[in-house]
Amino acid sequence: MRGRFLGSMITVAIVAAAAGAVGTMFVTGTPGQAQNQAQTQTPGQPQAARPPATVGGKPNFSGIWQANNEANWDLQAHAALPAAVTQQGVYPYDYARVPAAPVLALGAAGAVPGSLGVVQGDGQIPYKPEALAKKRENAQNWIDRDPELKCYLPGIPRAMYMPFPFQITQSTNKIHIAYEFSNTARTIHLDKVEGPPDDTWMGHSVGHWDGNTLVVDVTNFNDRSWFDRAGNYHSEALHLTERFTQMSPDVIWYEVTIEDPNVFTKPWKIAMPLYRRAEPNMQLLEFRCNEFVEEFMYGSLRKQQLVKHWEGETMTVDITRKVPPGDAFYAWYGR
After folding, report:
1. pLDDT tens, 108-149?
2. What's the pTM?
3. Distance between alpha carbon 92 and the CA centroid of its chain, in Å?
4. 3-state DSSP call for residue 6?
5. Domains of the chain
6. CA gap 126, 130 in Å, rounded
C-alpha cells in the first residue's frame, strides 16, 4: 500500500523532471498572459504558481485539478435523495422513501445531492435490457458492491470526477496523472508502447494531439470498476475515448465517449469542466483508504468482534457481522 503511493510519487518526480528539461527548449508563453494574470489577481492575495502555457507547442495541463459536480453519485440527472440506501416509507411512493438502517444515523450528511447530469444527448445511458436489470440490482446493493466503499482503484473515467483532486504532470511524450483517492495513478503514453500484460482497473491510456485537444484512447480494462455510486457499470470490453480541451488557463473541458458492446446498445458520451485548484500551497495529500476500510471488509475474520455497538443521544446501533455463503477468502483464512 505504501509502496504503491511511493511508486506513484517517484513517477511524478521523474515525469516532472522530464517536463522541466523539455521546458528549456519548447515552453513558450501566451502573449499578454502575465498581464492578464496580474489583472485578475486579488490585491494582497498570494498567487498560485502557474506552469508554462505550453509544452512542445501544445497546451500544458500540468497542475492540480478537480471536478465540481455530482457525477460520482450518479452520471444521470436525478433529484436529491434522502440517502444512497433507502426503504419504503409510510406511503408506497418513490418520493416518500426514507433512509435505510445502515445510513439512518448520518442524517443529512448521508443524503444524495441532486444533479442535472453529465450524460450528453438525451441524458439516457443506452443499456441492453439485461444489463439495465443488473444496474438496478447494483444500486439496490450499493453497500455490498460499490468498489469505492472498499477503496478499490476507481477506474477511468470515475477517477476524473470523484470528489478528490488529481495532479497532471506533462512532458512531450508522457502525461502522468496522480489521483488522491487510493493514491493511484496512470500514465498517458504519447509515444509507441507495448500493451499491458493483463487487464487492469485503470486501463491502458495512449494519447495523441488533435490540434490543441488531447485525445486519449483507453482500453484493457477489467470489469470490476463502476462509473458511479448509482450502480452504473461496464464489462471488460470497455473502450473509452477521452478528449481534454483547454477552455482557459484554469478550466479543461473533459469529454468521454463510452463504448461497451457487452453492456450498451450504442456509444454514449459524458462531458464536464475540470477546474484548476488555485490555492497557493495546493498539493495532493495522502488518502490511504485501504487502512480505513479494513474493519468494514475484514472485521468478520476476528475471533472477537471489535465494532459491534454504538450508542448516541437519540439512537443505538448494533452490528451483526455476516459472512456470505461460500465466501472463499473467509474459508481460506479460517483454515
Report:
1. 999 999 999 999 999 999 999 999 999 999 999 999 999 999
2. 0.84
3. 34
4. helix
5. 2-69+149-276 (2.40.128.20), 304-333 (no CATH)
6. 12
